[in-house]
Structure formats: structure tokens, C-alpha cells
Write a structure and sequence with these properties.
Elements lengths: L6 H96 L21 E6 L10 H7 L3 H10 L6 E4 L4 E6 L9
Antiparallel strand pairs: 1-3, 2-3
């Protein structure tokens, strides 16, 4: 700078130079601040996204668990109702068999067949013996009387999906069974 410049001009140049330096510093600080804000905004956005994802995941997991629990409760209730029906049917079967055996005069002797191949796949009552040594003729009256229960046995088997086979048994060595697998019970 030339020293012969008037003081006013020097003062003006000095002011201009200070203003320019201040402006450059202000712009530098602004750029630095904007970059810092941008970085902070990105970090905050990522943190919010992670928190939202975690929260959503936890909510979905909780909802899935609640849904599974509800399905399990519904299935358990369904099984409970089915077992109540089954228990009721067993009680009715028992009561009916007791009535038949205690009042033989009210019932005719009914025929019941042993398992045969032609019964395969159909619901039918079948007479089975625990042993080949049983005197079938001596038991014919008890068998004929007990055979009065066969329609009830078949109905229980047909109407309850939990029942694979329904039967009554005698202490004298025979059963009357209702199911669809007569062909599998035939002794060769």
C-alpha cells in the first residue's frame, strides 16, 4: 500500500479489508455449521429409523405372539368341547349298557357278526373274542342281549371324529366293537 494515500482512504481500505475478512470467517463458520447440522440430522434420522424399526419389530412380535396364543386357546377350547361331548357319549353308553343288562326282559336278543372282509370301510358292529377257547354257545344269550347296544356304538363312531373305535367289553371274554377296520381284524 502506498503511504501517501489519504487517511480517509486508508481507513476505508482497512474497513473494507476487515469486513472482507469478517465475511470470509462468517461464511466459513456458516459452511462448517451447515455441515455439522447435516451430519447431526443424518445421525438423528438413522437413530429415529432404527428406533422405529425396533419398535415396529417389537409390536409385530407381540402381535404375532398374541395371535398364536389366541389360536392355541381356540384349539384348546375346541378340543375341550370335543372331549366333553366324548365324555357325555361314554356316560350315555355306560348308562344304556347298564339298563340293557339289568332289564333283559325288555330287550330281544340281537345278532352281531364277527369281522368279515365285506365290512371293510363301513361302520359296523363286530363281535370279537379275547381267546379262541371261549365257549361261544354258553355266552350266546349275553352276547345277544349286549348286541342291543350296537346301533349306539356305530352312531358314536360315525358322529365323533375323535373316535376311531367304540366298544363294550364283557368280563366273560368278548367285545362288541364299532369301527371301519373289520378287514384288519380277521385272523388268517
Amino acid at each position: 500500500m502506498n503511504m501517501k494515500m489519504p487517511i480517509r482512504r486508508r481507513f476505508l481500505m482497512m474497513m473494507l479489508l476487515c469486513s472482507l475478512v469478517s465475511l470470509i470467517i462468517a461464511v466459513g463458520l456458516s459452511v462448517y455449521g451447515m455441515l455439522g447440522v447435516r451430519s447431526t440430522a443424518l445421525e438423528t434420522g438413522v437413530a429415529i429409523g432404527n428406533t422405529a424399526a425396533k419398535s415396529s419389530s417389537e409390536v409385530l412380535e407381540k402381535q404375532s405372539q398374541e395371535s398364536i396364543m389366541q389360536v392355541a386357546k381356540d384349539k384348546a377350547r375346541q378340543v375341550e368341547l370335543s372331549l366333553q361331548v366324548l365324555r357325555s357319549e361314554v356316560n350315555m353308553l355306560s348308562d344304556e349298557m347298564i339298563t340293557i343288562m339289568q332289564n333283559p326282559q325288555n330287550y330281544a336278543l340281537m345278532p352281531v357278526s364277527e369281522p368279515r372282509p365285506e365290512f371293510a370301510g363301513t361302520y359296523v358292529a363286530q363281535l370279537e373274542f379275547f381267546s379262541e377257547d371261549i365257549n361261544r354257545y354258553a355266552l350266546s344269550e349275553e352276547i345277544g342281549l349286549a348286541a342291543n347296544i350296537q346301533d349306539f356304538l356305530v352312531t358314536i363312531n360315525k358322529t365323533n371324529e375323535l373316535v376311531a373305535s367304540s366298544y363294550i367289553a364283557s368280563k366273560n371274554g368278548f367285545t362288541i366293537t364299532a369301527d371301519k377296520i373289520a378287514d384288519l381284524k380277521i385272523n388268517p
